[in-house]
């Protein structure tokens, strides 16, 4: 396999996995790590990937991707985050699930519980849970964002006013040690910030590819997150900073 074919193969792998490690690529393609490192450097120069410690992640445009497309990205990691989150909730809890594909992964996992109350603003989560007899489901309602299938606005915030929430689960499109969890949409982010005020415990679940990304709408600072769940943190310095600011749990 020549260099061009190998680099195309790397991109195809990353379209599925989104992130790659140099050591695994070298073994898979039967070449040296130095060869893979050169390939990734060239791909970064073409702005196709972004190098991280020990590997690379696929470059994603800063504009918001469709919900359906995000469901296929890092799906295994999202399932692992959701499974880990289930260790921190108890029967009888009232849980808020925010919009987003990682939150949908949580909705699929919590159906194992026998008695939960779930509040959400997400139509995909509603469709996932409304037939579950063991889950009492409350829908905030409001205006609909079509590409996300989520509700937001003053109506949603007003419907929230009488709830006390034991655990709120949130995700996002970006997270940074200094700038916190962030997202694209003002309307949905306004609701997320309001929900946080009603939560005893705030949990954020987000995969490693979102680290270092800062988007316009800040949801919450790292130090105000009670529990941060992720698959891994590539940068050792960032890892230590996170541990100093919040309770960090890695799924790996």
Description:
- By secondary structure, the chain is of the alpha/beta class.
- It has two domains: 3-58, Orthogonal Bundle (Arc Repressor Mutant, subunit A); 67-250, Rossmann fold, CATH 3.40.50.1360.
- The protein is 38% helix and 25% strand.
- It contains ten helices and 15 strands.
- It has helices spanning 3-17, 22-29, 33-45, 67-71, 75-85, 101-109, 123-129, 154-160, 186-196, 236-245, and strands spanning 19-21, 49-52, 55-58, 94-97, 116-120, 135-139, 143-145, 150-152, 165-170, 174-176, 180-183, 199-205, 217-220, 227-230, 248-250.
- The protein has a seven-stranded parallel β-sheet, with helices on both faces. It has a three-stranded antiparallel β-sheet with strand order 1-3-2. A three-stranded antiparallel β-sheet has the order 10-11-13.
- Helix 10 links the parallel strand 14 (227-230) and strand 15 (248-250).
- Helix 6 (101-109) runs parallel beside helix 7 (123-129).
- It is elongated.
- InterPro entries: Carb_Metab_HTH_regulators, DeoR-like_C, DeoR_HTH, NagB/RpiA_transferase-like, Tscrpt_reg_HTH_DeoR_CS, WH-like_DNA-bd_sf, WH_DNA-bd_sf.
Reported CATH architecture of the largest domain:
3-Layer(aba) Sandwich
Q: Could you state the order of secondary-structure elements as H and E? A: HEHHEEHHEHEHEEEHEEEHEEEHE
Spatial ordering of strands, largest sheet: 6-5-4-9-12-14-15
Distance between the termini: 32 Å
Q: Write down how many β-strands occur, each being a DSSP E stretch of 2 or more residues.
A: 15
Which structural class do the helices and strands define?
A: alpha/beta
- Sketch the major β-sheet: 7 strands, parallel
* CATH class descriptor name of the largest domain: Alpha Beta
- Find the CATH topology of the largest domain: Rossmann fold
Mean pLDDT: 89
Number of H/I helices: 10
What is the approximate shape? Answer: elongated
Give unreliable regions as ranges: none
Strand content: 15-25%
Task: Indicate how many domains the architecture comprises.
Answer: 2
- Level of helix content? 25-40%
Radius of gyration: 19 Å
